[in-house]
Specification:
By secondary structure, this protein is an alpha/beta fold. The chain is built from 7 helices and 6 strands. Helix 3 packs parallel to helix 7.
Length: about 210
């Protein structure tokens, strides 16, 4: 006659179930947690619980929160900009009060430091088409081009710099081909791995692959 330790077997069973649930969350739920930019329409954005009126920086706050969750690190705000004349990165809070005010890019939306790496973040969510959306993405294009030029001009920086451009929204998705053109230029081949251009869903995969 066999005797079974029901308490021990029950404990093993519960541990096994917890392990299965953990692996499910890790391998399935996390991979499908974020909506791709292709599906981020104006209507989608309005239906999000974090979206209010669009006048309180909700999109950037949403993106920053997810970045911090992915990187497990605070993404601090910054007033750093790139100077278009000499491709330096300098803190500049109010560039337009100076005569050369248009020689500065917009400021980066966030910054992180990890060991000897610095991550500069540019956050955008552009939904649906229109003149204003096209102008926004054109400005983003030139901003990213300045990032490439900066890396070409500063190949020996002590701290390796990465420029992260989170372009959410279905209009950003629609214009992927324009940004891919910039990425594939031969002159930028040697530094292409230091610039990310894509939505938050793709960034999640990119960051966890390389960092």
């Amino acid at each position: 006659m066999r005797f079974y330790n029901l308490r021990s077997n029950s404990r093993i069973y519960n541990l096994r179930n917890r392990r299965i649930l953990y692996n499910f969350k890790k391998n399935y739920i996390n991979k499908n947690l974020y909506t791709g930019s292709k599906y981020q329409t104006k209507e989608w954005r309005k239906n999000q619980i974090w979206y209010k009126t669009g006048k309180k920086n909700e999109c950037e706050l949403y993106q920053r929160k997810i970045i911090q969750k992915i990187t497990k690190q605070k993404c601090k705000k910054t007033n750093l900009r790139i100077n278009i004349e000499n491709y330096s990165i300098i803190k500049k809070t109010h560039p337009l009060i100076e005569n050369n005010g248009f020689e500065w890019t917009e400021d980066f939306d966030g910054i992180q430091k990890k060991i000897n790496n610095i991550f500069y973040y540019n956050l955008k969510m552009v939904c649906n088409s229109g003149g204003a959306q096209t102008r926004t993405l054109r400005e983003v294009y030139h901003f990213i081009k300045c990032q490439y030029e900066y890396l070409l001009k500063h190949p020996n920086d002590v701290e390796k710099k990465y420029f992260i451009n989170i372009l959410d929204g279905n209009e950003s998705y629609k214009r992927k081909k324009n940004f891919n053109y910039l990425k594939k230029l031969d002159k930028y081949n040697s530094i292409s791995n230091q610039i990310f251009i894509g939505d938050i869903k793709t960034f999640d995969k990119w960051y966890n692959k390389f960092f």
